[in-house]
Amino acid sequence: MLRTVLIFSMTLMTSSVWAQWAGEGDLAYSNANGNSNNSARAAALALSKESGAWKHSVGFDAIGSSQNDTTTAESYTLVGQSDYAFSGDYYGFGALRYQTDRFSGYDSQASAKVGAGWHVIDSEEATFDAELGVGYRKTELLNNLGSESEAVVSLGLIYKRVLTETTDIDVSYFTESGSSNRYSEASAGIRVAISDALGLRAGYLIKQNSDAPVGSRETDTLTTIGINYRF
Length: 231
Hints:
Distance between the termini: 26 Å
CATH architecture: Beta Barrel
Strand order of the largest sheet: 1-2-3-4-5-6-7-8-9-10-11-12
CATH superfamily: monomeric porin ompg
Number of strands: 12
Largest sheet: 12 strands, antiparallel, barrel
Order of helices and strands: HEEEEEEEEEEEE
Radius of gyration: 18 Å
CATH class: Mainly Beta
Number of helices: 1
CATH topology: Porin
Structural class: mainly beta
Helix content: under 10%
Shape: globular
Strand content: over 45%
């Protein structure tokens, strides 16, 4: 399944369908052999398009890992957001998010929300956006054990900075909190350009559910090194 997703992501990055969109994609793989055999795979695609006061963005990522030929992590996330710029550095947004993670204890989590954002920093060297939203989330439990529906409050922080002509960093934090569970993720990455479009990227990701079902991990981490392509 994950191999199919990797091929699909590469096809999308080179497709003329997205000619009006700007974006970037990541493909990463790691493998270690010794007393145990460990491997991790990750693919990510982010697209954005601006039209007047509107900005539309779509993102997708797939993560998988295994140890001694046994799958230990597998998740897929799809997000979409539309922003409308008001005067100054403020904007409103509407967002949809869907995630399935077979090792989180939840079959899927889907949410819809609206909110407001602030371009705290907006310069050629650095950008920093802060977002606060409210919405609704539905969670499907594994093994047909039912579902949970609740109101949620979300917070998003995204920081990007150009360090040199060939190196830039990005740091982000996202949390979505309801009465039954708080989902949070934090990531950091550094990219070194090889050419105008191609680069090498190293990243670190932490994902956490505050109230994971019994037998499931609350926290997952992933370290990746791979290829980044911007278009």
